[in-house]
Design a protein that fits this description.
Elements: E1 15-20, E2 24-30, E3 36-43, E4 47-49, E5 52-54, H1 57-79, E6 88-93, E7 99-101, H2 120-130, H3 139-148, E8 159-161, H4 163-172, E9 176-178, H5 179-182, E10 188-189, E11 194-195, H6 197-210, H7 216-219, E12 222-224, H8 235-241, E13 252-253, E14 257-258, H9 259-266, E15 274-279, E16 283-288, E17 301-304, E18 310-316, H10 321-336, H11 343-354, E19 364-367, E20 384-387, H12 395-419, E21 426-430, H13 439-448, E22 452-455, H14 462-476, H15 484-492, E23 498-501, H16 505-520, H17 522-531
Parallel strand pairs: 1-6, 6-13, 6-14, 9-12, 15-21, 21-22
Antiparallel strand pairs: 1-2, 2-3, 4-5, 7-8, 10-11, 15-16, 16-18, 17-18, 19-20, 22-23
Helix pairs in contact: 2-3, 9-14, 10-11, 11-12, 12-13, 12-16, 13-16
């Protein structure tokens, strides 16, 4: 039943969050109490073009407009009125990658996403020069690789940004990035809150020797922390957001952020000794550090919270997509038996079965490698399910092995952090994988050896997190000294109940056995990459 328009909160006190994820573009509207009023979404898929993973800019705007339109439709359906304004807006997206533009704002080469692994030479040289880990997916690695390859677009390059930065600039005209997103472009100096000056100088020396006259610092967006006024929705931006002209310009936008930052916000994990795990197409863990790591390691990135505090990040290119694919197969099988079920029911049944499986996976192994995985040294991936002749193949063991496979590479990276003395009081988990109560949460606790907390925001994800950051920016307009950590703890999460699961002893021992087998079995994965060409079907093997 349509509610009266008066039941809709004052739109000037709402916040709209838009997040461009790997497979879905989502919009989330929250009220003054940070609860969700309406959502909208639009599915999209990456493409393999000339050997590189990309999304077209046309697909970006079709997705953004589709998600916002779906949200507006829901508001109109429930409240009898279509939104014309919001109190604030935030844009978030997949971090890293390469979006290079000329002076006129034209894209010079197709958007290169975080998923590409063609930057190994650049990343290695930059890591050695800077003395800090520069992952393959970081924007500076993409830029420097283009310089090493003497790509023809370089003489025309005038600016460089991320996907969130691109959308934000189109909406506001401001070439800025939130500090969390910027920390995946170039290393951030925690003392200054912006790009590390020493490393910029070192990079300038490298670039001058190969591409004289190219000033990298001039290409990069301005870095701003959470709570900053990052611009207002322009007339042109409003038309991009809503081609019908219903949404009016002039709305405040918060700094654009990456999905890692919005994950920290969505799980209230911006304080030291806290962290979060975000599981989607990729999977990554973020741990807020008390002090710098003792050594550099290729499995650990140093990024920041949306406020600029140092964070150790374990990022794995491959997350739950292969598990999703198997759920799809079981859904088709159920339909073939005349028992059609929706995807949530199938997924829930698989996860529930996983709890009945042997703690060590029963001799079964699952590799979710749809793409390359830098942590394990693989430039390409081949999804695999492997078992020994003596193992028992049943649904419970299969399901547990698949869930363990989602967490396998992450666990290898978290082991590095433990060896460096990083202590964690609690990890917060979010993403669709954790909507089925208690299953993935319990197995993740075993994989990382730490308590895992899940709240009612676990399935909300980044679109809700960036909406909260947008609401925070509006609050800071009148409360200048309001810290993000205090805002989250007192106003957003103060009355949210968390379900905390401690690691189970049998699961801990079982996962350790599984991980030893998983690490040894990586040779199988390498052999599969060498033996099996992706061929013309590579684009269809991507994120489903």
């Amino acid at each position: 039943m349509t509610q009266r328009a008066g039941d809709l909160p004052d739109l000037d006190r709402t916040a709209l969050g838009i997040e461009l994820g790997s497979t879905n573009i989502k919009a989330c509207l929250i009220g003054p109490d940070h609860s969700t009023i309406a959502t909208g979404s639009h599915l999209w898929e990456n493409e393999l073009v000339d050997g590189l993973w990309t999304y077209s800019l046309e697909a970006v705007w079709a997705g953004v407009q589709g998600a916002v339109a779906a949200l507006s439709d829901e508001v109109e359906r429930r409240y009898g009125t279509r939104p014309t304004t919001f109190g604030s807006i935030g844009v978030s997206a997949m971090m890293h990658g390469y979006l290079a533009f000329d002076e006129a704002g034209e894209l010079l080469v197709p958007f290169r996403t975080w998923r590409n692994t063609n930057t190994a030479v650049a990343a290695e040289e930059l890591t050695e020069t800077f003395g800090t880990n520069i992952p393959l997916r970081w924007s500076v690695a993409h830029l420097y690789q283009a310089i090493l390859d003497d790509e023809p677009h370089l003489p025309r390059i005038a600016s460089l940004t991320t996907l969130a930065g691109y959308v934000h600039r189109a909406l506001t005209g401001r070439h800025v990035l939130g500090v969390g997103d910027a920390s995946g472009v170039f290393p951030i100096d925690a003392a200054t809150g912006t790009y590390d000056a020493r490393m910029l100088e070192q990079l300038a020396g490298l670039v001058e020797a190969k591409r004289p006259g190219l000033k990298v610092e001039a290409l990069l967006p301005e870095v701003v922390p959470a709570g900053t006024d990052a611009g207002r929705l322009t007339t042109e931006g409003a038309a991009l957001l809503d081609p019908t002209g219903t949404i009016r310009p002039g709305i405040l936008l918060c700094p654009p952020e990456g999905d890692a930052g919005t994950g920290m916000v969505a799980t209230n994990s911006v304080a030291q000794r806290t962290g979060n795990v975000s599981a989607g197409t990729s999977i990554f863990a973020m741990v807020v550090l008390e002090e710098p790591l003792a050594t550099v390691h290729h499995a650990i990135d140093i990024v920041t919270t949306p406020s600029g505090d140092p964070v150790a990040m374990v990022h794995c290119n491959n997350g739950a997509s292969e598990l999703d694919a198997w759920a799809g197969v079981f859904g088709e099988f159920a339909a073939a038996l005349g028992l059609p079920s929706d995807s949530d029911a199938v997924f829930g049944a698989l996860l529930t079965a996983a709890l009945k499986g042997s703690p060590d996976g029963g001799g079964l192994l699952a590799y979710n490698y749809l793409a390359g995985e830098p942590i394990t040294g693989l430039d390409e991936g081949r999804p695999l399910f492997v078992r020994t002749p003596g193992s028992r193949l049943d649904l419970a063991g299969f399901a547990r092995a698949q869930v363990y496979g989602v967490f396998g590479t992450l666990a290898l990276g978290m082991r590095v952090l433990a060896e460096q003395g990083v202590e964690i009081d609690a990890m917060f988990a979010h993403g669709g994988l954790f909507r089925t109560a208690g299953v993935a949460q319990r197995l993740l606790a075993a994989a990382i050896g730490a308590p895992v907390a899940v709240g009612r925001t676990a399935g909300e994800g980044g679109s809700w997190g960036i909406a909260v950051l947008a609401a925070y920016a509006r609050a800071v307009e009148t409360e200048r000294d309001l810290a993000l950590s205090a805002y989250l703890a007192e106003r957003v999460f103060g009355d949210i109940d968390l379900e905390v699961v401690e690691p189970d002893a049998a699961d801990l021992a079982g996962f350790k056995t599984y991980l030893d087998r998983y690490e040894a079995g990586l040779e199988i994965e390498r052999a599969a990459v060498a033996a099996l060409d992706t061929g013309a079907g590579a684009a269809e093997e991507g994120e489903q």
